[in-house]
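Cont'd.
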Amino acid sequence: MKTFRFEKTYQDTKTSARTGVIHTPHGPIQTPAFVPVGTQATVKSLTSQDLQELDTHLFFVNTYHMYLRPGLDVIVKAQGLHAFMGWDRPIITDSGGFQVFSLGRKKFVSRKNAIDSQDPQNKDDQHESPSLVQISDDGVTFRSHWDGSKHVFTPELSMQYQWTLGSDIHIAFDDCTPYPVTEKLARTSMERTHRWAVRSIDEHEKLAEKSRQSQEKYQALYGSIQGSVYEHLRKESVQFITSCPFDGFAIGGVAVGESKAEMKKILQWVTPYLPQDKPRHLLGVGEIDDVFELIEHGMDTFDCVQPTRLARMGRLFTMTRQKYAQTYENASYEIDITRPEYKEDMNAIDATCPCYTCTHASRAYIHHLFKVRELLAYRLATIHNISFMNRLVNEIRLAIQRNSFVALKKKWLGVA
Amino acid sequence: MKTFRFEKTYQDTKTSARTGVIHTPHGPIQTPAFVPVGTQATVKSLTSQDLQELDTHLFFVNTYHMYLRPGLDVIVKAQGLHAFMGWDRPIITDSGGFQVFSLGRKKFVSRKNAIDSQDPQNKDDQHESPSLVQISDDGVTFRSHWDGSKHVFTPELSMQYQWTLGSDIHIAFDDCTPYPVTEKLARTSMERTHRWAVRSIDEHEKLAEKSRQSQEKYQALYGSIQGSVYEHLRKESVQFITSCPFDGFAIGGVAVGESKAEMKKILQWVTPYLPQDKPRHLLGVGEIDDVFELIEHGMDTFDCVQPTRLARMGRLFTMTRQKYAQTYENASYEIDITRPEYKEDMNAIDATCPCYTCTHASRAYIHHLFKVRELLAYRLATIHNISFMNRLVNEIRLAIQRNSFVALKKKWLGVA
């Protein structure tokens, strides 16, 4: 039985912003929603209970990482990723493609300087044949970032892996176009993504059929839209991908190095073609101005490591603009807790924040923990930044329901 | 008003083991009690709330570390260490002496090979004048392990620092005798400890008088007993220190390198001289066999970094003996979660343990977190090992009340 369903609850009249509920076998997700990333089956330093207490509804896990460590055999023994992590709310997994391409490419670049610079073979088309990632129409061969062992991902295998993980939302295996890229290569990559989308659906339907027979829970599949920064490619991609019977859609190939202006254009090109009755996810984006932008363009969920990564660097978000900030940039809404002015500051990070950190620890205490590099620093900071993101998105959700999204955006960013 | 008081509740008839309650301005401590160490104002990876949920009653903090970072000015601004850490139960601080001596000596040894080996001045008496620690009868001059800056601790300053911290139990400033040490040096060191004990009391009483006038809470002072591994020195020290008006007594100079047999002898020499109506603390000891030994000799509280340090290495305690263990050693009651046999083990670390870790995470999940070096690994492991220590001590406390301490010790260690 298809227990996956999107229900739109409010539509902003001035923009494409909307609120809704994604119903999944592991419960509902109120949208828009910020989705914290637990790359290795944990949002760094937090337990599943912490995330529940922070009112997080959806947890993002990387298939690539689960496949390599602990390995899918362990997840099978645990009877799925939910049980393995002790998390009984919805999970979204990616296809593994992004890591396969980007971690492989990173290694290639670092080795290139040392070894491959005299190798004319790799000069013209780095994307097509970097030494640690081999892409063919069948799939991708890559080496583990842990031990260099060789592995293969194909659309079929990616689907099988995600069914094994048992996540509520899967993403079709795509060819992650690098940035910057020529139009020619962007097209080659996009066309491969489209062929892989069809193969992903075929495999997904086989697995869904098996699961129907064994009365297992339905797992949804999102198609991934590529096309880099080229308008006609993005439009071609969204039209093709939305013509396929996906349960929802993800915009990929963003946050790969393009500018914020380019990302905004991609949203403008793509989102008008997305069907209203299906959920949309933006992959890997989540700075404060991005959040307003993506929600304004009708995206429902978005994952991003930035809030938790910044937390571990001591950069903590605040609901009010900091007085030393001169501009309306994201930095206006954060403090760097490692700065000397917080050494004796006995206030909470944000007096209005209900999180454990703000109700139990002063800026001075957190400053101290960072200065002496105590593990607790990262935990307290992470709790707060996720609390902030959830509060920000809640505030936006309420504004949409009151038809005041544009005013709220202006209040936060200074521009409508 | 003297709100500090020890109440003995049960006395084992076969040994010196006893149960009791130490009443402090921040509430009672049921004894015997394991005291986790929060060197830098946090038990590594845990919040104060975690410790409360684990039923920890007393928290050990190092004066030396607080003095250097965050610095006592910050603690003053926070209105004391309790408020700074968000911990409203009792705190015990040490005198700073142990760190001043041992961190300084450590640096000296490592520099000695490089610089001082041709220096005849330092050949004969390392204890008396290592290059980074200068000891005189007045006190100790040392260099910060953070930045090499120069600082001084004296008995008077140590008392002032501990009053500033606002801990419930202070320890007199002592000369921490190194190990191994000649009898001559052990005596020199002990006699200095005795002179410093008197000065600690004088200063403490001045500070207590001030505090009475301002209606502040009374803070207790424990005397520290030294004498190394020499019977007559230990006896001389306990007789001198217990003749002084201390609120309780700490045995120092153990866990500095001596054998378990030597530590046992020290307990045998010293404890008969300790008054029954005052609490006793053992500094820096806490392996499972030690716990039985020290409680058997009538100690009430003991602090140790070992359970939390082992946790961060993946060595997790179990209430039942592990089958691969051949002996009655401490290792019988622990598993090394990083070993491959736990990769697919879906059981809790200890099925009988009520801690968050054991009720939410499998051995396989914790194994995975350690293997990929996730911060959550250290937290889950630390929670469990503290839970174990508290359960062990609870079990011992109940056994004393039922007059079955010796039987319980035999059950755990195989020897009475």
